[in-house]
Amino acid sequence: MKNLHFSLISRIKKIYDFIYVLIERLDNHHVFLLAAGIAYSILLYLLPLFLVSVFVVSKLVDPVILIDTLQRLATEMLPPTEQTSRFLQTVIYEVNDIFNKSSLAGWIGVFVQLG
Fold this sequence. Notes:
single chain; mainly alpha; 5 helices
């Protein structure tokens, strides 16, 4: 029993030492900083891409059809409560607002992507 206990402690110490050395090497090579920079760059390019995609969708899809589809999907997936109806009203308002202002946002997104 004592040998099994010693083996378990030895294994845990080896795992701890491995994880400690791994984190130490990752930190020495600035992997965490690199990952943060990559994530920031991706987010920086996703916003203009989203603006351009909204612009393109607004030119291809009728807003009434999109709102009807979103409303139907939300009523099928969400429980029929007061919060759901408020959520649907908010979504409809926001979709209308996005479609009304999509040309300006789309052109901003195009210029940012090109720059």
